[in-house]
Design goal:
This protein is α+β, with helices and mostly antiparallel strands. The chain has a domain of 159 residues: Cytochrome Bc1 Complex, Chain D, domain 2 (Orthogonal Bundle). The strands form 3 sheets. The protein has a two-stranded antiparallel sheet. Strands 3-4 form a two-stranded antiparallel ribbon. A hairpin with a 5-residue loop joins strand 5 and strand 6. Helix 6 runs antiparallel to helix 8. The longest helix is centred in the last third of the chain and has 33 residues. The chain is globular. About 4% of the residues have low confidence.
C-alpha cells in the first residue's frame, strides 16, 4: 500500500518536474481567439501585412479565409498580395537561400507553427504569444533585436512600430554557492509605439489566434463531429447493454 501511495505521488509530481527541468523564459498563456471570427480576421490581416513578407504558409490557400467569414471580394481587396488568384497558396518570393543569407537562417513556413511549438513549457500559441511580446533592443545583434523566448534569433522585430522599443533590464543575484548570476528583471520601454500595451497584446493574441486556426482550419468541425460521435457511441453502448441483458434473460 505504501509503495502504491508513493507511485501515485510520483505520477502527480511528474508534470511539475517536467516544467522545472525545462529551462528558458516562462511562457504566458495565450488568450483563446479561434472562436472569435472578428479577432481571427484581424489576425489574418496582421499575418498578411507583417509576416507574409518573409514567411510562407504553403499549406494554406487564400480562399480558405472564407471559413472565417471573409468574402472573395474582401480577400482580393485587403489580403491578396502574393498572388492574383484567390485559390493560390500563401507563398513568398524570397527563396530559402536568400533568407539564410540575410537572416542567418531561412524563415520557417508558418502553416503549422502553432502546433509545432508545443512543449512541456506550454502550448504552441503560448510560445508564439510570449515570443512576439518579448523582443528587446540589442545592438550586439545583426538586426539590432533580441528575444527572451528565442535568444539570438535572426528575425528582426517586425512589430516594433506597433509595440515600441524596449530594453531588457537585468539584476545581479547570488545563488546558494555565492556565485553572482545575471538575471532578467523586467522590460523598460524607451520609445512608445503606435499601440498601448493592452492594444498590442490584444493584436498579438489575434495574430496567434489566426496562426492557431491556420494550423487546423477544420478544428471547429472536428470538435462538433466528435461530440456527435460520442453521443452515438453512448446510445450504441446503452442498446448493446439492454440487448445483452435481454438475451441472457431468455437463456436463464
Amino acid at each position: 500500500m505504501n509503495l502504491l501511495k508513493k507511485l501515485i505521488a510520483l505520477l502527480t509530481l511528474l508534470p511539475a518536474l517536467a516544467l522545472a527541468s525545462e529551462e528558458g523564459y516562462p511562457l504566458d498563456h495565450a488568450p483563446e481567439r479561434t472562436k472569435d471570427l472578428a479577432a481571427v480576421q484581424h489576425g489574418a490581416k496582421l499575418f498578411v501585412n507583417y509576416c507574409l513578407n518573409c514567411h510562407s504558409a504553403s499549406s494554406m490557400r487564400y480562399n480558405r479565409l472564407r471559413d472565417i467569414g471573409l468574402t472573395e471580394d474582401q480577400i482580393k481587396a485587403n489580403l491578396l498580395f502574393t498572388t492574383d488568384k484567390v485559390g493560390g497558396l500563401m507563398t513568398v518570393a524570397m527563396t530559402p537561400k536568400d533568407g539564410k543569407e540575410w537572416f542567418g537562417a531561412a524563415p520557417p513556413d508558418l502553416s503549422v507553427i502553432a502546433r509545432a511549438k508545443s512543449s512541456e513549457s506550454g502550448t504552441g500559441p503560448d510560445w508564439l504569444y510570449t515570443y512576439m511580446r518579448t523582443f528587446y533592443k540589442d545592438d550586439s545583434r545583426p538586426t539590432g533585436w533580441n528575444n527572451m523566448v528565442f535568444p539570438n534569433v535572426g528575425m528582426p522585430h517586425v512589430f516594433w512600430e506597433l509595440q515600441g522599443t524596449q530594453n531588457a533590464v537585468y539584476t545581479d543575484e547570488k545563488d546558494a554557492e555565492g556565485k553572482v548570476e545575471h538575471k532578467f528583471d523586467h522590460f523598460e520601454m524607451i520609445k512608445a509605439g503606435k499601440l498601448s500595451k493592452l492594444e498590442y497584446d490584444t493584436s498579438v493574441a489575434d495574430l496567434v489566434g489566426y496562426l492557431e486556426w491556420m494550423g487546423e482550419p477544420t478544428q471547429g468541425l472536428r470538435h462538433q463531429l466528435g461530440g456527435w460521435v460520442l453521443m452515438f457511441l453512448g446510445v450504441l453502448v446503452f442498446l448493446t447493454w439492454r440487448l445483452n441483458a435481454s438475451y441472457w434473460k431468455e437463456i436463464k
